[in-house]
Amino acid sequence: xxxxxRQIKNAKPTDKPYKLADGNGLYLAVTPAGxxxxxxxxxxxxxxxxxxxxxxxxxxxxxxxxxxxxxxxKLAAGIDxxxxxxxxxxxxxxxxxxxxxxxxxEWHTYQLPSxxxxxxxxxxxxxxxxxxxxxxxxxxxxxxxxQVQAVIESVAARGALDTAATVLQRxxxxxxxxxxxxxxxxxxxxxxxxxxxxxxxxxQPALPQSELTEFYRRILSDKNIRHTTRLAMxxxxxxxxxxxxxxxxxxxxxxxxxxxxxxxxxxxxxxAPHIVPLADWPLEILAELKQITGYSRYLFPAIGSPxxxxxxxxxxxxxxxxxxxxxxxxxxxxxxxxxxxxxNGFPPDVIERQLAHVEQNKVRAxxxxxxxxxxxxxxxxxxxxxxxxxxxxALALIAAGKTA
Length: 404
Description:
Elements: H1 5-10, E1 18-23, E2 26-30, E3 36-44, E4 47-55, H2 61-76, H3 81-97, H4 100-111, H5 117-135, H6 145-156, H7 161-180, H8 212-221, H9 227-239, H10 243-247, E5 254-255, E6 260-263, E7 274-277, H11 280-293, E8 301-302, E9 305-309, H12 314-321, H13 332-343, H14 348-355, H15 362-368, H16 373-400
Antiparallel strand pairs: 1-2, 2-3, 3-4, 5-6, 6-7, 8-9
Helix pairs in contact: 4-5, 4-7, 5-6, 6-7, 8-16, 9-11, 13-14, 14-16
């Protein structure tokens, strides 16, 4: 006969465990300690197995029968209910462990070797302020496009469009990491690319990041390129100044000991002084260049006229000769640097200051030339190392007689 609630309530513990059958394999196991546990006995693939349903009275008689019936439906479909329960339990535990915050922390730790402590702290603060309050406790695999969109729109609503775009990039990076480590199947930040429209200047064609190694291979392989012109191209890529600022650069503008290129206001588009922190590779290029053009006031004097700077079209002609007409321009290296640095978590305000984009009045000029200078030093060294890695890839291709 099926069980009833009175029988279950009146069941008393004995010295040995015993069972109260409800029928069709469902029974209540009564333990010597007084516990009452619902179990379902079933057979699958010729083997007898048990499914634990839960404790009475937390699981009532009616609920136990519903659970048993659901298990029988699984059996009818060829599914082992005990295995299915264990799988669901593991998935639930994984969801608890693989929250966005935990994955963001893992990604952050993974990136630490490529960041200075200062920069790493700033990136994590950005997560704490703008991302984790909304997404931190959510299982990474369950976050929707709408949830990510709500986060970036809330940042944009403050008028911080650059920050909103950076927040989207960082969310996207965490999801890419989760996909690589098999904790997520898709990236809900990808469809939102371009949602936040950040006002910026119209840029001339910029070299795609994927073309960097091939660009270096071509400039290194072409024996018809003057070495000083080659060095000029390497230097403008590393410093991403405007072509006119590089062309008119004078040795007197450089403080090698301080590792700074101090561009006077009259040579700047915005007519305010500007500092370019010099990383290791640019300093090596300057040392080599000094041996070649140190006789002139200019780093890159015109051919046959040491008192004049090189032609304003020299580098543009070179990119065209290398096969990049309509694909890349010297000015486009500013856009390339902006994209790479934004994607790698550098603060937009620091990038913009290094680009000298903001017009400055005379009162604030002295301040702006040094604003964010420690962060800019760190950023310029990172970017120098990033480009140098592509340069060394090109050298390896040349040595192997290959193209990128």
